[in-house]
Amino acid sequence: MGRDEVSRRRLLLGGAAMAGTAVLTGAFGTGAAWASGSPPIIDCAGWGARPNSDVVPVWNQRPVRILVHHTATPNVADLGRGAADQLARAIQNFHMDGRGWLDSGQHFTISRGGFVLEGRHRSLEVLRGGRQQVEGAHCTGQNVVAVGIENEGTYVGEDPPAQLWNRLREMCAYLCTQYGIPPTELYGHRDFKNTACPGDRLYGMIPRLRGEVAGMLGQRLEAWETQRASWPLLRRGDRGPVVGAAQYLLAAVGLLDGAPSGVFDTGTDAAVRRFQQLTAAEEINGLLGGESWPLLARTVHKGEGGAAEQAVLVLAAERGAESIPDTVDAAVWQRLLGTDGVPIAVVMDPVGPPR
After folding, report:
1. Which of 183, 194, 97, 85 is closest to 139 using CA atoms?
2. DSSP-assigned beta bridge partners for residue 110
3. Sign of CA dihedral 103, 350, 140, 151
4. Integer Cα distance of 325 and 316 in angstroms
5. How many distinct structural domains can be found in the chain?
6. What average pLDDT is seen over the chain?
7. Mean pLDDT of 203-213
8. How many angstroms separate the CA atoms of 56 and 46, rounded?
9. Do 260 and 321 fall into the same domain?
């Protein structure tokens, strides 16, 4: 678990105990018919938000994607409105007092009980207009071009409850309608940063989310259309050819002590942290994810030799690839890593760090 995940847990919620795993039934997969329009959303005044400490920036452009997060807080059994309000206040206090931001970082929050709450002031007003975007603070590089939705809980080892999932689908459908965002443009936080967020289980459900949101909007996606190209998330304790390839790439830039072993050990963790420092990553946490992979997996040319080409050969042997292009670029790397799909359009914020 990275530093950002630990920080999120400190929001808390009175030390509430973890609840049992929710089961998503087959009937829930399609859900009730969705009537076009906004799901119920509690505005900032409704949950007792503090005033923002500075002017909330509003940009005269529409966002192009939606980012799904989890709060990394306990999976509480209390699904009531009071718990939802408490969550929103705890997040705002942490973001303003702990991180020094002007308000909550995310645009919207969904509680485990299925309550949707406005996060940052003016997000609901601007969404209803459908022409502008409130600048958030949920993912550096995506705060102007993406709407951030925090989902209460920790979804590393269990699925979100039905109430939350239904509201997430409805909220995504409404955002897509208001802003003209294609339902394929739904992503997880880890697609852009070195983080476990939104948890392995919820992240694994994002292709399903794309397909179900498309269905709610009267569209049909083929299975391949729900898959977006990504990068694997590697962390301490992982093992296998993908870890071995990452180690060869770290060796290629002179950061790995010892020979690649295919085990993400303490030495690999240290090498990843050094790479994060050298590349000015937002978090120095030892997680190799969507922020660092694109920089580490450089273009490799056939016959150049060295550790980087050895990384290619390790993956090709694992995948049973009979032929490898003469030039291994990001798309080829993702195919060899087993995370290929429709490429993500490169759209980044025109602004600096979160505020």
Report:
1. 194
2. 116, 151
3. positive
4. 11
5. 2
6. 91
7. 98
8. 19
9. yes
Query: 73 with 193, same domain?
Result: yes
In a domain, 65, yes or no: yes
- Is residue 92 in a domain? yes
Least confident of 15-19, 156-160, 338-342: 15-19
Is residue 271 within a helix (H) or strand (E), and if so which, with residue range? helix 266-278
Distance in angstroms (rounded) separating the CA atoms of residues 305 and 310: 7
What DSSP letter does each residue of 108-164 carry, written as one string? EEE-TTS-EEE-STTHHHHHHHTS-EE---SSTT-TTTEEEEEESS--SSSPPPHHH
The token pair at 330 is 């990001």
CATH code of 89's domain: 3.40.80.10
User: Residue 273 belongs to what domain range?
Assistant: 241-337
Q: What is the mean pLDDT of residues 245-252?
A: 98
* Prior bond of 198 cis (ω within 30°): yes
pLDDT at 351: 87
Whether residues 145 and 184 share a domain: the answer is yes
Q: Is residue 316 scored above 70 in pLDDT?
A: yes
The model carries a pTM of 0.89
Beta strands in the chain (DSSP E): 41-42, 58-59, 65-70, 108-110, 116-118, 133-134, 146-151, 186-188, 300-301, 327-328
Q: In this structure, is residue 350 part of a structural domain?
A: no
Q: Residue 166, SS3?
A: helix
Identity (one letter) of the amino acid at 82? G
If asked whether residues 313 and 176 sit together in one domain, one would say no
- Residue 190 belongs to some domain of the structure: yes
Specify the amino acid at residue 334: Q
Q: Among 200, 226, 252, give the residue marking a domain's end.
A: 226
**Other Cβ atoms within 10 Å of 223 Cβ, number:** 8
Same domain membership, residue 116 and residue 182: yes
Same-domain check for residues 87 and 146: yes
| Residue 295 shares a structural domain with residue 318 | yes
Encoded amino acid at 94, one letter: F
Tokens of 68: 């799904």
Using alpha carbons, list the distances in angstroms from residue 193 to 53, 190, 257.
27, 5, 25
- φ, ψ of residue 212 to 5 degrees: the values are -70, -40
Are 214 and 251 part of one and the same domain? Answer: no
Between CA 47 and CA 43 the distance in angstroms is 7
- Count of alpha carbons within 13 angstroms of residue 63, beta-carbon side: 30
